[in-house]
Design goal:
12 strands; Rossmann fold; three-stranded antiparallel beta sheet; 416 residues; 2 domains; 11 helices; seven-stranded mixed beta sheet; Aspartate Aminotransferase, domain 1; alpha/beta
């Protein structure tokens, strides 16, 4: 009997070893067909930066497939003279929370100066660029207009143009795939650092493609080079690449967060918690005044594609309703290809608004009458329509023409 058990265990161990080896070989083969922009630069296009003083705009997401930071890759490369680092929101090392200003400092590991491109100075100044011959941008985006990194890139392109410095964007995947485009195109009046240009909420583009679009369509005119990836396909999600997920920001812990973010982030424009201060930001949504079961039941009654809602309660450790028991829902995406995050987000906002009219609030408008919610959606009409009781279908119809027009422009800049 013992011999039989030992034999069975040995067989299981053997099969596990073989399975692991097959998986490893498969991943290695997959890696051979896939290369990031940074890998293409260092392996094939080093002449773009060789013997030049290089300024690097980056954060912790800029790693190669072995998760080695681009800072280390460049700093330790004898052909590269890395002279300055620039950090977007959350900083070069990703240690700052959303909206937190990061002062200028010296990077402990390299001794290089690090300049903040968030807070008081969002665009590199001539002084910041005085020791730079070429600018590099390498940061992982999340595929949503609200995310500030793409505007850090655009402002860096403006600075590069103004200071006669070429800029190179090293491309990375759109983690929520590059085929789906959703939501209203931003109106100029509602431009801000969470929406600088007239693009839709879910743009379906990579940072390299956006750089080309910004440069040509919005008059930046920088000396721009995009180093393309190899082996990336538009219809795949981040977990279908050989890449490891590195947090793009403190409240973007997983790919699942990025998938719901284009719609769930609308909650930031209200007095309802978007789950900051929990382990499931943007997946958990709630407030002390909500009845979890009632909200989940109402949202599930819509039978929205690719998603189900579970009644949930949670206590945020910071941000809205910190240390107060909140009730609401957790978003569970059941089919991410069918799921429409922005539309789903609108349903959530409108439903809470309608169910709790005495408690729900949009964030107060500023002196110009613009609420943070308006900055997020990119117009003032959606908030007004929700308050007027219009249906989601009526609200969607209003932005379709602008979205169709954008899709025509977008096609010119797709690289993959």
């Amino acid at each position: 009997m013992k011999k039989g058990i030992i034999g069975l265990l040995a067989l299981v161990l053997l099969l596990s070893t073989v399975s692991a080896a097959v998986a490893k070989n498969a991943k290695e083969k997959k890696n051979e067909k896939f290369r990031l922009g940074v890998e293409v630069l260092l392996q094939d296009k080093i002449d773009l930066i060789k013997d030049k003083r290089v300024g690097l705009i980056t954060n912790p997401t800029a790693v190669d497939q072995s998760v080695t930071s681009i800072v280390d890759l460049l700093y330790n490369n004898n052909n590269v003279n890395l002279t300055a680092l620039y950090g977007p929101e959350h900083g070069v090392r990703g240690s700052a929370q959303a909206g937190q200003y990061v002062e200028q400092y010296t990077d402990e590991k390299t001794g290089l100066p690090v300049y903040s491109l968030y807070g008081k100075t969002k665009k590199p100044t001539p002084e910041m660029l005085s020791n730079v011959d070429v600018l590099l941008f390498d940061i992982q985006d999340v595929g949503t207009r609200y995310y500030t990194y793409i505007y850090t890139m655009a402002l860096a392109m403006e600075a590069a143009k103004e200071n006669n410095i070429p800029i190179i964007v090293l491309d990375r995947p759109n983690p929520i795939s590059g085929t789906k485009v959703e939501g209203p195109v931003l109106e100029d009046k509602y431009s801000s650092f969470i929406g600088e240009y007239p693009i839709p909420v879910r743009h379906g583009m990579t940072v390299g493609e956006l750089a080309k679009l910004f440069n040509s369509e919005f008059g930046i005119g920088a000396d721009l080079t995009v180093v393309e990836m190899e082996g990336w396909k538009r219809n795949i999600y981040y977990d279908e690449t050989p890449l490891e997920w590195i947090l793009p920001s403190p409240n973007m812990p997983t790919l699942e967060t990025a998938v719901v973010y284009p719609g769930a982030a609308l909650i930031e424009g209200t007095n309802v918690s978007e789950g900051r201060g929990t382990t499931k930001p943007f997946e958990l949504i709630g407030a002390p005044f909500i009845n979890s079961d009632n909200l989940a039941a109402k949202l599930n009654s819509y039978k929205l594609p690719g998603v189900t809602f579970r009644a949930s309660s949670f206590i945020p450790t910071f941000s809205k309703h910190a240390n107060v028991l909140s009730h609401g829902i957790q978003i569970h995406v059941t089919d991410r290809n069918a799921y429409k995050p922005f539309e789903t987000g609108l349903y959530i906002v409108k439903t809470i608004h309608d169910m709790y009219p005495n408690d729900f609030q949009f964030r107060a408008p500023n002196a110009a009458g613009i609420s943070f919610f308006d900055n997020l959606v990119g117009n003032g009409s959606i908030r007004a329509d929700i308050e007027a009781g219009k249906s989601i279908e009526e609200i969607k119809a209003a932005w379709q023409a602008g979205l169709d027009e954008f899709n025509g422009v977008r096609e010119k800049y797709l690289l993959y």
